[in-house]
Write a structure and sequence with these properties.
about 210 residues, binds the ligand CCCCCCCC/C=C\CCCCCCCC(=O)N[C@@H](COP(=O)(O)O)[C@H](O)/C=C/CCCCCCCCCCCCC, mainly alpha, single chain, Glycolipid transfer protein, GLTP
């Protein structure tokens, strides 16, 4: 799926997240980035109001894809190998932004925080009812996660954009995975892998004191 490609199949995207773990419970970079690219394609259908979000996600995906096509690509095969390689070689700005403003570790940390938002949002979408407002579900999930890392101006812009989200039933229909009930069931199937990826990444970053990278 290319950047900015507006064709998407959310079922495939969420299945891609399922394929992120290898048998050593390491997170494979390529399907992780593929999953994000699919989400961005879906986001692009939500209107130009989200283009500032989409651009930021695309630029972070691109940074990681550049690592994956560089001479050092093997070190970026999993999140675990990336952390070990970058730390061993002093390639991460640990305290303040300096020589490595776009290290793999800090770039993945931004996507990882966004994955927490996604997890909360999908869970609330799944368990809400037809009366619930998607915009409010999204605002609540955002405030409980990503917003804590964003300055006032981004929080304001994000909140305004969330009000443009369609009603819950339209949103679920836009997912194009069948009926509303089927879309809800698909969220239930996809969430455990997203939670697992989030938890493994969180533990990896906590173990190496990387959760506050500038
Ligand atoms: C099955 C249902 C599907 C739900 C579909 C969700 C689609 C979401 C697609 C992409 C999510 C966007 C991920 C955004 C990554 C943001 C990373 C970040 O925090 N970046 C900030 C910090 O970066 P640095 O400056 O330190 O490099 C950056 O400042 C942020 C800029 C843009 C604003 C980010 C707002 C994030 C809101 C995320 C919610 C998206 C709303 C989607 C609504 C469906």
């Amino acid at each position: 799926m290319a950047h900015g490609d507006d064709t998407y199949n959310l079922k495939e995207v969420l299945v891609t997240f399922k394929s992120c773990l290898n048998d050593k419970q390491e997170i494979l970079m390529d399907p992780y980035l593929e999953g994000w690219k699919g989400l961005v394609s879906f986001l692009n259908t939500m209107g130009a109001i989200f283009s500032f979000v989409s651009k930021d996600a695309v630029s972070k995906i691109q940074i990681m894809e550049d690592f994956r096509s560089s001479d050092q690509k093997d070190h970026y095969e999993t999140l675990q190998s990336m952390v070990s390689y970058e730390l061993k070689n002093g390639l991460v700005d640990l305290k303040k932004t300096g020589v490595y403003p776009t290290s793999g570790c800090r770039t993945i940390l931004r996507l990882h925080r966004a994955l927490h938002w996604l997890q909360l949002f999908l869970e609330s979408l799944r368990t809400s009812n037809s009366e619930s407002r998607t915009s409010l579900l999204c605002i609540d999930s955002y405030n409980a996660s990503l917003a804590n890392y964003h300055p006032w101006i981004i929080r304001k812009a994000a909140t305004m954009a969330f009000y443009a989200l369609p009603a819950r039933e339209t949103f679920l229909e836009n997912m194009k995975v069948g009926t509303i009930e089927e879309a809800v069931a698909m969220l239930g199937e996809a969430l455990p892998s997203i939670v697992q990826i989030y938890d493994i990444t969180q533990a990896l970053y906590a173990q190496h004191n990387l959760l506050d990278l500038p």
